[in-house]
Amino acid sequence: MVAILFWAAVLAVLHTYLFYPLLLILLDGFEQARGAWRYICGSERRRPPAQLGLPHVSVLIAAYNEASCIGQRIENLLAQDYPAEHLEILVGSDASTDGTDAIVQHYAARGVKLSRGERAGKAGVLARLVVMAKGEVLVLTDANTEFEKDAIRQLVQPLRDPSVGLVCGRLRLHSPLGAPIVESAYWKLESLLKMYESRRGCVMGANGGIYAVRRHLFPPLPAGTVVDDFVAALRVLQSGYEVRYEPEAVAHEEAAPGHADEYRRRVRIAAGCFRALSHFRDLLAPRHGFTAFALWSHKVLRWLVPQALLIAFLTNLVLAPGSQLYGLLLFAQCALYFLAAMGLLGTSPRHLRKLTDPAAHFVEMNAALLVGFLRFSRGTQGQTWARTERAKAA
C-alpha cells in the first residue's frame, strides 16, 4: 500500500509536467497527419481564413496606486496600430491614493475615461468598466503591462471564427535591470501548453495581462474573484465557445523582483484559483470530453502537486531502508530540496545557479500553492490587492 501511494504521487507529478504535454504534442501530430490525408484524398479543402473587419474594442484596466506606470500604459495603448475610432480606453481606479486618478484624467481630452469607486477589488472595478464599455470586444490588461504595437490587431483576429469566445495573448516576462528571470522555464512550458490546447479550442486560462473576450460572454464576475483571466476562460468554455491562444499578440511585463514578492503573488493567485474552480466543478465531469481532461491535467493535478510531493517524500522514507531503488529516489528528492534551499537562501555558487534557481522556483511555487489552498479552505484570502513594487528601469 505504501508503494502504491508513492508511485501514485510520482505519476501525478509526472503527468501534469511531462505526460500531458507529450500527449498534446502527439495528438496534434495525429490531427495534422489525418488532415493531410483527408486533403490528399480530396475529402477536405483548405481555405484561407476570412479576414475580420476590425471590431470596436474597449480596453479595460483595473488600477490601484499605479501612478508610477499608468501614464506610460495609456501612451502605449494610444500608440496601438488600431483605428482610433474603434478603440476606447477605460481605467477603473480602486480608490487609488497616489495620484493615479489625476494622471488618467490628464488623458481625458484624448478619449481616455476614468471610473473611480470605493475599494472593491478587481472584480468590482471590472464590473463598473463593463457597464461603461461600448465595444463588442473587451480587451483586458494590467497597468504594468506593455503591448507591442500590433497586439490588439493580432488579438482580435481569431475572433473571426464565431465559435471562438476568448483569445489569450502571449505574455513575455522580463527584467529591465537585466536580472535573470527564474520563472522563464516554467513560463515557456505554460506557453507551450496554451499553444497546443488552443488547437483543440480549450486553453485552460488566459494571461491576465492580455486577453480579449466577446462582451456578451463577460457578465459581472462572481464576488471575490481574484483570477479574472481563469474565471473568464472557464465561463467561455462552459458556454460552449472555444478559448484560443494567439502568440502573435505579444505583451511585455516585468517579473516580480524577488522570491518574497513572487511568493506572495502566487499565494494570492493560488487561493483565487481554488475558489474559482469551486464554481466550475461541472467542467470536470467526463461529459465535457477533452476540456474536462485538460482541466484535470493542466490545473487540478498541477495544484495538487504539493500534496503529491509530500506523500512521495514520506512514503519514500518508509520504503528506502533495504531497497537500493527507493534509496536512490530518496537521495534524488533530498538533492532537489537541498538545491532549492541554496537558491532560496542565495548561497549557491554561480556555476550551480542553473540548477538551484529552477529548483528554488519549483519548491517556492508549490509551497505557495499549498498555502493558497489552506487560505482558500479557511476563507482567509481577501478580495482586494496590494500593488507589487517593481524595480525602476535604468
Describe this structure in words.
This protein is α/β, with parallel strands linked by helices and 394 residues long. The protein has two domains: 136 residues, no CATH class; 199 residues, Alpha-Beta Complex (Spore Coat Polysaccharide Biosynthesis Protein SpsA, Chain A). It is built from twelve helices and eight strands. Helix 2 links the parallel strand 1 and strand 2. Helix 1 crosses helix 10.
Q: What is the CATH topology classification name of the largest domain?
A: Spore Coat Polysaccharide Biosynthesis Protein SpsA, Chain A
**Number of separate helices:** 12
Strand content is 5-15%
Share of residues in helices: 40-55%
CATH class type of the largest domain? Alpha Beta
Our count of domains comes out at 2
Sheet with the most strands?
Answer: 8 strands, mixed
* Shape category: globular
The end-to-end span amounts to 57 Å
Summarize the helix and strand pattern as letters. HEHEHEHEEHEHEHEHHHHH
- Can you tell me the residue ranges where pLDDT is under 50 for at least 5 consecutive residues? none
Mean pLDDT: 89
Identify the strand order in the major beta sheet: 3-2-1-4-7-6-8-5
Give the CATH superfamily of the largest domain. Spore Coat Polysaccharide Biosynthesis Protein SpsA, Chain A
Structural class by secondary-structure content: alpha/beta
Number of E strands: 8
